[in-house]
Amino acid sequence: MKSHLKKIIYSILILVILLFTLFFITLLMQKNFFFYDYALYGALLVVLALTLSLGLIPGLLICAIVIFGYGSVVFFQMITGTSQIWTLNYLWFIAYPLTTFFAGQLSENVRMANEQCTKCDKMTDRIVTIDEITGFGNGREFLRDLDGEMARAKRHKIPLTIGVLEIQYFEELITIYGRDNTKKIYKVIAEALNRATRVEDLRFRIDEDMLGLILPHTTIENAQVVKMRLKENLSKLEIEDESSLGRYNIELKVGLLAYRDDILNPMEFKALAVKELEYDV
User: Fold this and answer.
1) What is the pLDDT of residues 25-55, one digit of tens each?
2) 257 φ, ψ to 5°?
3) What is the fold, at CATH topology level, of the domain defined by 139-279?
4) Are 32 and 77 contacting, i.e. CB atoms less than 8 angstroms apart?
5) Which residue ranges make up each domain of the chain?
6) Model pTM?
7) What is the helix, strand, coil percentage profile of the chain, to 5?
């Protein structure tokens, strides 16, 4: 990543030096700018922008078209005897390919740096398993731990129940209270969930508006007790903020499901638990 950044910086510096060098040479060789000077500078900037956007090969093709057009004009001036400063004519023929080449290098280095950043982001997503707001595991961790608990429950014939908790009207909460206060709500819900569950119970944030629970050694009847305890705690939920809305009435749906041998994998187990949300009225 650092090598790509260095190459990007060097390419930018070279491009700036080229443009300023061309500008000062033009000033030194003639007192006034003519129309064709502005046109050539404008065309050079267009070629530069297109090369940065499209890449080196398309940029060189566009550059070749511009040089061919300009060369045709110079050739016509030579034939008619109206050609102006020769050195500047040759200077443009050098400036266009050089600028296009270094712009293409810059475009390629930026592309490679973006690809590397994307790879780093994907690696980070794989590594990070903790939700920063609640401190719970994330959705990936939920499925992984659930897979292990299912295997353990099946092997040792012990009860296992999972819970899916959905915050109702979550988008409306964000609209009314803003994301910062909604994060506060999530933190308080997380604290209430910690109080309602045991140390050995596993807690997760599996979606933006959804929490997950894995309750080992727990029957569906015992899980119902946890559900009632949690809803009771949330009914007293109060959060202080800078607005006049200091009390939040959070509606939480809870779907509970006990493990059965016919449930084949964690994804199916989770999906069946999510269906149970429909019956929590």
Assistant:
1) 666 665 555 666 677 777 888 888 888 888 8
2) -150, 130
3) Alpha-Beta Plaits (3.30.70)
4) no
5) 2-127, 139-279
6) 0.55
7) 70, 10, 20
